[in-house]
Amino acid sequence: MVADPFQCPPLSRCERDRLMEKAHTACKLTVRNACAFAARYTLDSELHNDRTGRHATIHKGVDVDGDVPEAAMCARTHVRASLEEVANFFVLDTPAKCDAYSRVTGHLVQDKQSLYTLVAREAGLHFIGVNWMVAKTPIGLKARDFCYLEVHDEFTFIDRATQRVRRGWVRCMHSIPLPCCPSLEKSHGYVRSQFVRSGHIVLETARPGVLEYFNLLCGVTRRLGFTPVLAQDFVLRRHVSQILNLEEHFITQRLKTLLETPTTSFPNKDTIEYCSVCYHKFAWLSVKRQCRGCGDVLCTRCCAKWDVPLSETVISMMACQRCTRDGHSRDSSLPVSPVHSRFRLDAEDDEVEPRGPSDSDDALSPLGLHHMTFKGEEDDLALAAVSPFEWTLPSPQLLHL
């Protein structure tokens, strides 16, 4: 742990506006790149979670929006959760939530400090700040430290397939240089590294309660002349491959409520002859399982064992798929009021429809985008007098509303 090594002076209005501009630009490019990644680059690997049954794909490519191309990987899957649940998961304001974040993302954070808060977190969906972080590497390399912008923002887009306005949310992280946050390599041995236009993006789909989820990481460990390319690929792949853990985390949180269900009304599994899901007839020596939520008697193929963390212990329980998926009935297609919208990204010419092979939810993908609208706070999220899209982008220009 480093005891307050940085003395950061107050920001001038010009400096604050410049950081806000960078934050908005990085945020929009992160969303656009994640949505287009699978269409632009080759498939690197596929993942499957046996307990949730969820499938994910990883694509390997390059981020070319900066001065220097950065190696990048992007994982894509679906997650059964609400936009607000995902956003709240990334608000690391308690030790318990920090521990859950480490378990789910595999992010080995050794130390973290807030340098500036540009937009306070008055609502869970919006935040902009400048942070410093030290992260351990999993393969014996020196610890890396980062000075970066962190942006949480909500946006809307039009599902081209249904012409309905849907919502999305992004947690963007983008490294920046700051004079008040110099490298600590000589004093502490931390190698200053960077990630650019990286983060977590979730988009509503046609199915209420099911989100399209992307985990994009660009940059991180590469140190020319010192770090092998294979080591960088390993770190990128290891980071994005944790994508299937998020839904598993939400399921364990929902399963906690099932522990309150009384078991007195559950049937005696010894008297049940057929699996309640697949109707397979139990043989004489067949193993029977009983769902802790509904009491149904199941075969071993139609249920899963879950380890549910409580305050001081971990409880193992069996649950059927129906019980693990209950509890998300909200209508997820309500558009954000245009009164609060700051700007729009036109993407009518973009073909950003990544298709994961054999993913049963692919038909639900809302990624045929032709408009994006990012929602901003009054004044705080305004882009000042200068648009951050004055330079040429590989996608259509920003239009102020």
Automatic annotation (TrEMBL):
It comes from the Eukaryota. Residues 269-328 form the FYVE-type domain. The keyword Disulfide bond does not apply. InterPro entries: Rab4/Rab5_effector (IPR052727), START-like_dom_sf (IPR023393), Znf_FYVE (IPR000306), Znf_FYVE-rel (IPR017455), Znf_FYVE_PHD (IPR011011), Znf_RING/FYVE/PHD (IPR013083). It holds the Pfam family FYVE. One of its GO terms (molecular function) is zinc ion binding. Residues 346-366 are annotated as: Disordered. Keywords: Metal-binding, Zinc, Zinc-finger. Signal peptide: none annotated. PANTHER family: FYVE-FINGER-CONTAINING RAB5 EFFECTOR PROTEIN RABENOSYN-5-RELATED, RABENOSYN-5. This is FYVE-type domain-containing protein.
